[in-house]
Amino acid sequence: MKQGDLVVRKSYRGDMMFRIADFAGKGALLRGTDYRLLADAPLDDLLPVRNPDELSGTRQARIQANESIRRMREERFKQSERAGAYPNPDRRQHYFEMPGKVLHLDGDPNYLKKSMQVYGQLRIPAEGIHCHESQMPGMLVRLLPQVRPDIVVITGHDGVLKQRENLQHLGNYKNSLNFVHAVRVAREFERHRDSLIVVAGACQSHFEALLQAGANFASSPARIMIHALDPVYVAVRAAFTPFRETINVTDVVTNTISGIQGVGGIETMGSFRIGVPNPKETAENVNIV
Q1: CA–CA separation, 265 vs 87, rounded Å?
Q2: Is 54 exposed, middle or buried (0-12, 13-18, 19+ CB in 10 A)?
Q3: How far is CA 77 from the centre of its chain?
Q4: DSSP structural state of residue 51
Q5: Could you tell me which residues come within 8 angstroms of residue 237 by beta carbon, excluding any fewer than 6 positions away?
Q6: Which end of the chain is less packed: N or C, by CB atoms within 10 Å?
Q7: pLDDT digit string (tens) for 261-286?
Q8: Which is it for strands 6-9 and 46-48: parallel, antiparallel or unpaired?
Q9: Do residues 119 and 232 touch, judged by C-beta distance below 8 A?
Q10: What is the pTM of this model?
């Protein structure tokens, strides 16, 4: 086996697919391919995956991901209709849309790539940065004044350390403390939770600590695995909820792939705005003498 190989764990009956991130003695550090879980396992507990599509868990995760993307597109179209962007298919679009701007920090380059593709498809202005979870606080200190986002996504991989029963202690998580530090940096930059929406956490993250640090939405209330696209779904809903309206927290979290046990949050105003006139239409009507 080598770094980058796809594997499953025999002790967990191959329930989830991982990619080998690194080796440590007779063990390997594993990163989930569909779920934001960081794990480790002895090398003799790993089985190589030749055909990922043969794994029922992987197929199900991809079906769920496609459904999540479909819901995002549907919400995006609904918001355009509500804003009056498409009052009549035969008329020109007299409005222009300003979804919230996203700054997405991700500890996994593959997840970041997928996330940026979704933002691009939905025409959400977004800047994505891949960095290790421990580097996120310092990265935000530099990036927040430059990017000036409406929404910050702080995610990557996490997990509860083995044989650690006290789930309230931040030291019993692989990256929750890093996420908490990053959230605090975001709140030092902008303390008002409606002016900067923070979405933070990964699989099994310390939900309560992230909210107390200043996150608007976080994982994971029941310490379960969350799908790679769950933070993206929350960010998209925040980006397309009008700034005068409260994001429907219950609707958002129940429509994530992991559901209300995987993601939670607090009442927050959206960041979507419309403007008139449409600059493209105005440019077409300008007569240059």
Answers
A1: 33
A2: exposed
A3: 20
A4: -
A5: 75, 247, 252
A6: C
A7: 999 999 999 999 988 887 776 555 55
A8: antiparallel
A9: yes
A10: 0.86
